[in-house]
Amino acid sequence: MMISQKSRIVKLEIYLFLFKDNITLIIKNYILIINLVKVICFMFLRQLCLSAFILTGLYGCFGDKTNSVAMMTVAQSQKDFSVSNNSQTVLTFAKPKKVIYVAVNGNNKTGDGTSKKPFLTLNKAFKVAERNTLIKMGEGNFEVKGMITVPSHVSLEGVGKKTVITPGKNYQGVLFEAKDFNNEKGDGYQYFRNFNVDGKDKSELGFRAWGRENSLFENITFVNFNNAGIDISGLNNEISNCRFINASGREGQKNEHFSGAIKFMSANGLLIHDNYIEENSGGGIKSVASNIRNTQIYNNTINLKAGKNQKPNKSASIEIWDLKEGNKIYNNNLNGWVSLINQWDKDQEIPPKGNLLFYKNKLQANPGITDDMSGLELGIKGAEFYENTFSGFKHRIFWIEGWGGKKKPTKDIIIHNNQFNNCGNAMNLGPNGNGVENLKFYDNVIQNCNGVVMGIGGEKKLINISVTDNIFVNSQKAITLHGQSKQYVNLRIAENKAYASKFGLDNKVDGLNVSGTNPVSLKKGLPATKGFKN
Fold first, then answer.
1. Residues of 283-295 as b/e, b for ≥16 C-beta within 10 angstroms?
2. 88-102, 113-127, 271-285, 505-519: which range is least confident on average?
3. Residue 159 falls inside a structural domain
4. What is the pTM of this model?
5. How far apart are CA 79 and CA 93, in angstroms?
6. Is residue 338 part of a domain?
7. Is there a domain that residue 148 lies in?
8. In the list 44, 274, 282, 357, which could disulfide-bond 249, CB 3.0-4.6 Å?
9. How far apart are CA 136 and CA 198, in angstroms?
10. pLDDT for 15 beyond 60
11. What is the tally of structural domains in the chain?
């Protein structure tokens, strides 16, 4: 009995000892957990504050100032790259797999391209860049001493106007070349944005991108080039929110007729939009090569300035040869002339409609540049022009005739609901060239033109021409027909009104019976057109 009781006491002491140890262990673990939670909370708050400093650009004030831009870039590169936060760009890109940094205080020998040890030059960065790489420039001036070859899938980005690229002291050529001309489909999948490029009045080109696919140029300023800021061809490329200041051809440069702030050729799906172009010695947007498809030019402002180096016949706001199908030009403000002609492509290669829509553009004459030029020089097939405003062209607005060495007529043209103000002649139709076929001109308002508003006739055939329901105000002569009757096939002139005009229709063609434009007093009121509102 005594042994059994003693045994129980011993067991109880053992249990109490074990329980005490467990309590001590639990308390220690609890304290450890509390401290661990404190550490986690501190690290979380620290990272949150650091991220806020990075995103607001304040990190340099509290950390390494030289790496503040790079740190900001890291934060930006961690989000999925939709090419622009504010602009209306169409192309988008995934975030790069690698970022290479270039800085004015970098070093090509000791640097490794990281944010802490950036390279010094762009030449070095592009030389080592692999696919899916972004080259990130900081603030400062970066010299290009020889043409840089840009591989596919490699992008270039600056931090804005404080990032400037210039040619080296003795370099006058192309600064960047992205070229896959032997590959029919092309390659690219890259973007260039947020920096300035200054050609110093000696470099030929900023970027030559031939045969590329899905390449974006955004928020770049090009200044002082001798031929062009960008020369591009390929599939589904985009030029958006860029500025071009005196970036076109200079007097005395070779092939200055083929120079423009933006040049393109053999383009399919090219988008040129929301750009500003200002030139004192060259043209705006130009393409003088064949096969332009599905290209859109919209929301651009082109301001050409007269000067001693500005040649009127070389300085079109927009000049495009050989539009082929699916093209649009709209919502542009232009103060120079426009040329749209079919120079090279065969007639059967172009559809009778859907080649070009030209609408809601404002074309303003520019003294010293457009004095002897037509507002719109037209010689293509399958085009429609509507809701445009043409003002101040003292020579003429539309110059329509057949162009090109293929002996093709200009045909399948619709011009309607446009407004023509304060011009010399509104339109000359078929004075020479290869003739005009299937043209409709209706519901347009033409006012305050000094001479013959519409001059129709010339040396070649005019087939299926219809001029109806137009309003002429304050003109000398609304419509004049000249030439020989055999040149006209199925001419229709009807329901036009000439207000405060001396002559409605002046028919100078013997044997051609046509009517349909009558002088009307303004006292009866000016009726509204059917589709275009002033």
1. bbbbbbbbbbbbb
2. 505-519
3. no
4. 0.80
5. 11
6. yes
7. no
8. 282
9. 18
10. no
11. 2
Look up tokens 């589904």; give the residue.
236
Interatomic CA distance for residues 534 and 520, integer angstroms: 21
Residue bearing tokens 């004192």: 280
**How far is 190 from 94, CA to CA, in rounded Å?**
10
| Burial class of 418 by CB neighbour count within 10 A (0 to 12, 13 to 18, 19+) | buried
Q: Between 345 and 333, name the one with better pLDDT.
A: 333
Q: Whose structure tokens read 């090109």?
A: 404
| Neighbouring residues of 389: CB distance < 8 A, sequence distance ≥ 6 | 361, 362, 363, 418, 419, 421
Which residues sit opposite 379 in a β-bridge? 341
Higher confidence at residue 17 or residue 195? 195
Compute the chain's Rg from CA coordinates. Answer: 34
- C-alpha 215/C-alpha 207 separation (Å) is 12
In whole angstroms, give the CA distance from residue 333 to residue 355.
22
CB of 426 within 8 A of CB of 399?
no
Rounded CA-CA distance 40/504 in Å is 88
* DSSP, residue by residue, 324-386: EESEEEES-EESS-EEEE--SS-GGGS-SSSSEEEES-EEE--TTTSTTSEEEEEE-EEEEEE
Average pLDDT, the chain: 77
Burial class (CB within 10 angstroms; exposed 0-12, middle 13-18, buried 19+) of 80 = exposed
Question: CA-CA distance, 458 to 468, in Å (whole number)?
Answer: 20
What value does the mean pLDDT take over residues 2-14?
52
CB neighbours (10 Å) of residue 28? 10
Closest CA to 303 of 278, 271, 331, 268: 278
Whether the pLDDT of residue 405 is over 60: the answer is no
**Tokens of residue 249, six digits:** 């051809």
- What is the C-alpha to C-alpha distance for residues 57 and 504, in angstroms, rounded to an integer? 68
Q: Which of 56, 76, 93 is the last residue of a domain?
A: 56
DSSP for residue 313: G
Specify if 404 maps to a domain.
yes
Residue 27: give the domain boundaries.
Answer: 2-56
**Residue 184, CA distances (Å) to 234, 237, 239, 372, 432 in order:** 8, 15, 21, 41, 38
